[in-house]
From TrEMBL:
Gene this protein is translated from: Pcgf3
Keyword Cytoplasm: no
Organism, scientific name: Zapornia atra (Henderson crake)
This protein's UniProt keywords: Metal-binding, Nucleus, Repressor, Transcription, Transcription regulation, Zinc, Zinc-finger
Protein's UniProt name: Polycomb group RING finger protein 3
GO molecular function, one term: zinc ion binding
Statement: the UniProt record of this protein carries the keyword Glycosyltransferase: no
Origin: domain of life: Eukaryota
InterPro entries (UniProt xref): PcG_RING_finger, RAWUL, Znf_RING/FYVE/PHD
Basic and acidic residues bias locations: 84-107
CDD domains: RAWUL_PCGF3 (cd17083)
Taxonomic placement: Eukaryota, Metazoa, Chordata, Craniata, Vertebrata
Main localization category: nucleus
Amino acid sequence: LLSVCRSCLVKYLEENNTCPTCRIVIHQSHPLQYIGHDRTMQDIVYKLVPGLQEAEMKKQREFYHKLGMEVPGDIKGETCSTKQHLDSHRNGETKADENSNKETSEEKQEEDNDYHRSDEQVSICLECNSSKLRGLKRKWIRCSAQATVLHLKKFIAKKLNLSSFNELDILCNEEILGKDHTLKFVVVTRWRFKKAPLLLHYRPKMDLL
């Protein structure tokens, strides 16, 4: 397995379909669909390099502001500020009081019940493009960038009372999305430089012969 900077790898795969190290063909036409996010490696790098995470988030925010787009990292940025505040307490930079243990316990419980709200967020518009299915009453949703197309299928199936989420196809720019694609991957590869929300369409699954 190869771990490299995602932005560098995406740029490389825009013009190539091989591994940058061993030159083995990843996929003839859609190599970007076969790369994954190495969260463990990213966490290790962030811990080894002081200030890297904050610097990366700052660059990301400047990038979205430059394009006039919504900044999906706002909530995550607020979470990092909270984390820095907690770290300052742990390092003795502020005076501890008799309620510190109680507050820490409450904060930990709140963090455990976060339900991915502190993740980078993606705004989505889910439109139906088939007369065989009805549209959603609430087609505008906001969820974690780590959510997958499969999560969206299950969400739509539940809202439409379908017997199985396997009855659905979800498309972006008229291209069927793989069930394991994360929304972050879809935004980077199929909604680049376009303004939010990410527009997705759903329809009954079509069996290709």
